[in-house]
Backbone:
Protein backbone atom coordinates (compact mmCIF):
# COMPACT_ATOMS: atom_id res chain seq x y z
CA UNK A 1 0.00 0.00 0.00
CA UNK A 2 2.78 2.45 0.83
CA UNK A 3 5.64 1.02 -1.22
CA UNK A 4 4.91 2.64 -4.56
CA UNK A 5 3.73 -0.27 -6.69
CA UNK A 6 2.47 -3.82 -6.47
CA UNK A 7 5.84 -5.20 -7.59
CA UNK A 8 7.68 -3.17 -4.96
CA UNK A 9 5.23 -4.49 -2.37
CA UNK A 10 5.97 -8.07 -3.41
CA UNK A 11 9.71 -7.44 -3.12
CA UNK A 12 9.31 -5.82 0.29
CA UNK A 13 7.26 -8.81 1.45
CA UNK A 14 10.03 -11.19 0.35
CA UNK A 15 12.66 -9.26 2.30
CA UNK A 16 10.42 -9.07 5.37
CA UNK A 17 9.77 -12.79 5.14
CA UNK A 18 13.52 -13.53 4.98
CA UNK A 19 14.17 -11.26 7.99
CA UNK A 20 11.45 -12.93 10.05
CA UNK A 21 12.57 -16.42 9.01
CA UNK A 22 16.13 -15.57 10.05
CA UNK A 23 14.83 -14.46 13.47
CA UNK A 24 12.74 -17.59 13.89
CA UNK A 25 15.80 -19.72 13.13
CA UNK A 26 17.86 -17.91 15.77
CA UNK A 27 19.96 -15.77 13.42
CA UNK A 28 20.73 -12.08 13.61
CA UNK A 29 18.80 -10.81 10.54
CA UNK A 30 21.43 -8.16 9.71
CA UNK A 31 24.28 -10.72 9.78
CA UNK A 32 22.18 -13.17 7.76
CA UNK A 33 21.28 -10.69 5.02
CA UNK A 34 24.81 -9.26 4.84
CA UNK A 35 26.35 -12.74 4.50
CA UNK A 36 23.79 -13.97 1.98
CA UNK A 37 24.05 -10.87 -0.20
CA UNK A 38 27.85 -11.15 -0.22
CA UNK A 39 27.79 -14.86 -1.10
CA UNK A 40 24.92 -14.77 -3.59
CA UNK A 41 26.92 -13.71 -6.69
CA UNK A 42 29.30 -16.66 -6.37
CA UNK A 43 26.87 -19.26 -5.00
CA UNK A 44 26.27 -22.17 -7.37
CA UNK A 45 22.68 -22.41 -8.56
CA UNK A 46 22.53 -26.01 -7.38
CA UNK A 47 23.42 -24.88 -3.85
CA UNK A 48 21.19 -21.79 -3.59
CA UNK A 49 18.95 -23.51 -1.04
CA UNK A 50 21.88 -23.50 1.40
CA UNK A 51 21.31 -19.74 1.77
CA UNK A 52 17.74 -20.13 3.06
CA UNK A 53 17.41 -19.23 6.77
CA UNK A 54 16.67 -22.77 7.95
CA UNK A 55 19.82 -24.15 6.24
CA UNK A 56 22.16 -21.16 6.43
CA UNK A 57 25.53 -21.50 8.12
CA UNK A 58 27.45 -18.24 8.51
CA UNK A 59 30.79 -17.89 6.79
CA UNK A 60 33.72 -17.82 9.22
CA UNK A 61 34.08 -14.03 8.98
CA UNK A 62 30.29 -13.40 9.22
CA UNK A 63 29.73 -15.11 12.56
CA UNK A 64 28.22 -12.73 15.13
Residues:
Amino acid sequence: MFVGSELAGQRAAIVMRLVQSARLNGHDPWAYLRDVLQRLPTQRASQIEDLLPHRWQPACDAAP
Observations:
- Residues 6-24 form the longest helix (19 residues).
